[in-house]
């Protein structure tokens, strides 16, 4: 059981969404944040750095959007869908764009493949949570 699910299990209030779906999204956001941050760093060590500049920028943008979304959806007290919904939409978009770029490099760079997979999982989790709220 993930820490997100464990923490949600201790929450004294009532959730506006399914706790398992929320925990899965929190886990996907955290994983994507980590993968994008690590991929941008790994890109810096590659020999043909110029070809990875766009990938690095998108990874850093995606990591920042995932981080902000993660922080907001982890706070369920005074839940506000008018804040949560646009963040999830932005995150799904950032993950799609970043995932598309990482997929282009995935055959040559294993770190891009890992990031691509994390982005796709996070994009899907954000879209599923959006559908539930």
Provide a descriptive summary of the structure in words.
The protein is mainly α and 133 residues long. Helices cover 77% and strands 0% of the residues. It has a single domain, classed as Substrate Binding Domain Of Dnak, Chain:A, Domain 2 (Up-down Bundle).
Which terms summarize this structure?
single chain, 133 residues, mainly alpha, Substrate Binding Domain Of Dnak, Chain:A, Domain 2, 5 helices, 0% strand
Low-pLDDT runs of 5+ residues are none
Helix count from the secondary structure assignment: 5
User: Which descriptor suits the 3D outline?
Assistant: elongated
Helix vs. strand class: mainly alpha
Average pLDDT metric: 93
Explain briefly what this protein structure is:
It contains 5 helices and no strands.
């Amino acid at each position: 059981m993930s820490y997100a699910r464990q923490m949600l299990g201790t929450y004294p209030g009532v959730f506006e969404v399914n706790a398992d779906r929320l925990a899965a999204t929190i886990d996907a956001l955290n994983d994507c944040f980590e993968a994008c941050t690590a991929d941008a760093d790994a890109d810096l060590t590659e020999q043909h750095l110029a070809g990875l500049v766009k990938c690095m920028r998108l990874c850093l943008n995606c990591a920042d959007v995932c981080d902000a979304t993660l922080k907001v959806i982890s706070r369920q007290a005074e839940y506000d869908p008018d804040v949560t919904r646009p963040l999830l939409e932005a995150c799904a978009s950032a993950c799609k764009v970043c995932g598309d770029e990482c997929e282009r490099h995935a055959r040559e760079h294993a770190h891009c493949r890992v990031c691509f997979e994390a982005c796709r999982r996070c994009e899907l989790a954000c879209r599923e949570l959006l559908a539930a709220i």
